[in-house]
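Invent a record, attention on tokens:
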Amino acid sequence: MNATSNVLFEQRLGDFKRIVEGYLLSIVCICGLLGNALTCIILSSRFMRTSITNIYIFSLSCASSCVLIGFLLTHGIRSTFHAEIFYRWIFTRIFPIHVTCLLIQIYLTAAVALDRFILICLPFRSRKWRSPKRAIFVVIGITLFSILYCIPFWFEFSLIKE
């Protein structure tokens, strides 16, 4: 390959990333945020808060919203706009929070799966293990564990002024 084709390839790759990450995935993130907002509005009503599964789904929806906002701020801005200084500043602050919310989302998904397992496979013992207070305790515990686990990652990035 010669230098001209390499430059052309890099230019096409940049255009592709701007279209996919900047526009398409940003649109998908905005649709996801709207869906999560609707879910949170519906599940936050007094009647819906009594179900254990709804508590998990509500918290999972909130964590997913944070992940989507983090993606928009860390990837969507860089691919769409040419604001490298702003991107560097926002990346060092948002990306660690984004990764923490990803970890919260993963553990909440596992908690929902475990809750469903207990309900379906152990129906007679499920009353002992499943209660709204316990679900809230699990959500808070997962959140605190994820934050404590990711604290060292929050200090990995720093801006070096040239």
About this structure: The chain has a mean pLDDT of 86. Residues 52 and 131 are 6 Å apart (CA to CA).
